[in-house]
Amino acid sequence: MKINIGPYPKHRWYHNFLYKLGIENKQKTSVHIDDFDTWSMDHTLAYIIEPMLKQLKFTTHGAPYVDPEDVPADLRPTKKELTLYTKTGDCDPKFFERWDWVLDEMIFAFESKHNDWEEQFYTPDVDWVERTKYQDRITHGFKLFGKYYENLWD
Fold first, then answer.
1. DSSP per residue over the chain, as a string?
2. What's residue 124's pLDDT?
3. Cross-strand pairs, 2
4. What is the pTM of this model?
5. Residue-wise pLDDT tens digits, 108-122
6. Domain range list for the chain
7. Nearest-angstrom CA–CA distance, 131 and 145
């Protein structure tokens, strides 16, 4: 696999004129996929997505709305805070914490994908309850990734 993604082009005043002529100023991208890249595509993509999520968490300047049912009870807004957000857009004190928590869960899932997490459970007296909880957390992280995919911006 070889990926080259250039920076977003700067928009200048004359680009509006060029766009009307059918000339677009696009971001330059080049992606080459080898046959072996799709053998374990979930594993391959984890190497790309995990560092991107970490960088996004480090550089983020905002946060999307996170559904209260997606986070632990201690991060959920009260009914009053939720009503206020719906009416005025005012954020409650844990608004940004919820997004950080969601990003952490996504990061955990992608880190686990390429860190052979199951190895810790390769014992004769494996704790199946703990293993299932671990797997459920990974699965939940991937579900959050899918649900909030369009919010992965800075």
1. -EEEEPPPPPP-HHHHHHHHTT------EEEE--GGGGTTHHHHHHHHHHHHHHHHHHH--------GGGS-GGGPPPHHHHHHHHHH-PPPTTHHHHHHHHHHHHHHHHHHHTTTGGGGG-STT--HHHHHHHHHHHHHHHHHHHHTGGG---
2. 85
3. 32
4. 0.84
5. 999 999 888 998 888
6. 1-32, 41-151
7. 21
